[in-house]
């Protein structure tokens, strides 16, 4: 078992380069199924969720070659099944994207129930609603979603609420359907735009991505392309918060500052200095961190995927802060771990955290409960007095490329330690 040992207290300093976006790249990999020729993806992050998506493609007969770090050649013309293996599907939410892409190309998909971080109940009813609107049927067969259609025909799809995953899947199923599809109340996240741009670069006809109405005219053939993934908004935000929490001075490079606006605005509200440049943001602290209120919202609101990291910063702010989680109904499980480090947080009704700032956190043995919770604990460990030992770091590696190396380059004292199962590690401070 691997753990991170972090000796806190070093202000982060220097420049960190942001990798390709996880939540875009997992969708791009699945979308290669719609391409009738080989294609090449660039700026693909080396994270475990991508490895699993590529494994899904390989398990179905696709040819996948890593040309160099971050550059992957994919030929899905050799796919010989529309079934995704249980073991791969059950480990991540993004496996649900294979429903839309297989349906879009082969008019059939068998995808075991998606897994992913436990953040509360995560049904896929809106995904299925979109498939049905286009003429597909769905049933649950041996614990898997089985969707099929004789033909897919464009239609109007209105989502009951904003959902990233269902918007992606509606695009995938519609891109080769006959006629026009109009998706209303669509998600506007940067990764939706990235996927639409990728498909358009193959010859798809998708307009309006990034607004709440997306119009798609189905095409018959999608040609090969080479496409680079956008930078990861959440990885960037995580380093911005880590810089603030350690009272550091960090340039976060290779980003699209516009994607970071809601995070930048909240950091500034807390007294953190943020300077936006063309492709980087510079974050530093020259005074106390102040309390604030945060409410998570679909893009362009404050992202739920930054909520645990930002709440962690607020545990060290002056005064009382209030954080409301509007997207998921169980995204405060990390609070119990932060309390072990001396944080003063109470959670009301599973949706609202009241955070009373404390002067410092104290190092402790803690466990990552999911991906962003793990990132939050890394930030807590970097800022805390003494040694923090983080267990379950495989969650963190689902979404952060080389996080320990990048942090060391910024001056953090973080080590990856292999600990035999059940071995007790004596904490020295
Ligand atoms: C995507 O999840 C991301 N995952 C999540 O990233 C992110 O937190 C989330 O969008 C919100 O931004 C990927 O992109 C792979 P949703 P997704 O559909 O698509 C409910 C991370 O840490 N819902 O926008 O699953 C759902 O339960 C993560 O990187 C339904 O009820 O999110 C949730 O409460 C974790 N029925 C809300 O809607 C549906 O059919 C929003 O979910 C679909 C969703």
TrEMBL record:
Q: Where in the cell is it found?
A: Cytoplasm
Q: Which UniProt keywords apply?
A: Cell cycle, Cell division, Cell shape, Cell wall biogenesis/degradation, Cytoplasm, Peptidoglycan synthesis, Pyruvate, Transferase
Report the record's Gene Ontology biological process terms.
Answer: cell division; cell wall organization; peptidoglycan biosynthetic process; regulation of cell shape; UDP-N-acetylgalactosamine biosynthetic process
The entry's phosphoenolpyruvate-binding residues are 22-23
Modified positions (2-(S-cysteinyl)pyruvic acid O-phosphothioketal) are 117
- The answer to whether UniProt assigns keyword Disulfide bond to this entry is no
Superkingdom is: Bacteria
HAMAP family, sorted? MurA
Question: What is the protein's known function?
Answer: Cell wall formation. Adds enolpyruvyl to UDP-N-acetylglucosamine.
Give the protein's recorded name.
Answer: UDP-N-acetylglucosamine 1-carboxyvinyltransferase
**What's the source species for this entry?**
Ruminococcus albus SY3
């Amino acid at each position: 078992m691997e753990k991170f040992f972090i000796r806190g207290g070093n202000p982060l300093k220097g420049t960190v380069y942001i990798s390709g976006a996880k939540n875009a790249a997992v969708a791009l990999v699945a979308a290669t199924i719609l391409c009738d020729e080989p294609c090449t993806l660039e700026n693909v992050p080396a994270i475990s969720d991508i490895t699993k998506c590529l494994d899904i493609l390989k398990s179905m007969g696709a040819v996948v070659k890593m040309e160099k770090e971050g550059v992957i050649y994919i030929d899905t013309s050799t796919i010989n099944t529309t079934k995704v293996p249980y073991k791969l599907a059950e480990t991540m939410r993004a496996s649900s994207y294979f429903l839309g892409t297989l349906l879009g190309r082969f008019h059939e998909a068998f995808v075991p129930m998606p897994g992913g971080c436990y953040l509360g109940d995560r049904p896929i009813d809106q995904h299925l609603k979109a498939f049905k609107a286009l003429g597909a049927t769905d049933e649950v067969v041996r614990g898997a979603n089985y969707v099929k259609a004789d033909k897919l025909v464009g239609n109007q799809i209105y989502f009951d609420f904003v959902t990233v995953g269902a918007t992606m899947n509606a695009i995938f199923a519609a891109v080769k359907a006959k006629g026009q599809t109009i998706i209303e109340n669509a998600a506007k996240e940067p990764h939706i735009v990235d996927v639409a741009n990728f498909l358009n670069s193959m010859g798809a006809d998708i307009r309006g991505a990034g607004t709440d109405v997306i119009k798609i005219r189905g095409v018959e053939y999608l040609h090969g392309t080479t496409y680079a993934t956008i930078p990861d908004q959440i990885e960037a935000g995580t380093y911005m918060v880590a810089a603030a929490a350690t009272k550091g001075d960090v340039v976060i490079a290779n980003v699209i500052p516009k994607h970071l606006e809601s995070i930048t605005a909240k950091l500034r509200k807390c007294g953190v200095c943020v300077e936006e440049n063309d492709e980087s943001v510079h974050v530093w602290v020259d005074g106390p961190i102040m309390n604030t209120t945060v409410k998570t919202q679909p893009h362009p609101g404050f992202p739920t995927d930054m909520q645990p990291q930002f709440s962690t910063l607020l545990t060290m702010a002056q005064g009382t802060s209030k954080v409301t989680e509007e997207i998921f109904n169980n995204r405060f499980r990390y609070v119990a771990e932060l309390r072990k480090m001396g944080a003063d947080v109470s959670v009301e009704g599973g949706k609202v955290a009241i955070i009373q700032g404390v002067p410092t956190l104290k190092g402790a043995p803690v466990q990552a409960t999911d991906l962003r919770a793990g990132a939050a604990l890394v930030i807590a460990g970097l800022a805390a007095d003494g040694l923090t030992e983080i267990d379950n770091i495989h969650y963190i590696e689902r979404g952060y490329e080389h996080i320990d190396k990048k942090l060391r380059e910024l001056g953090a004292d973080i080590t990856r330690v292999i600990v035999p199962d059940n071995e007790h590690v004596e904490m020295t401070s």
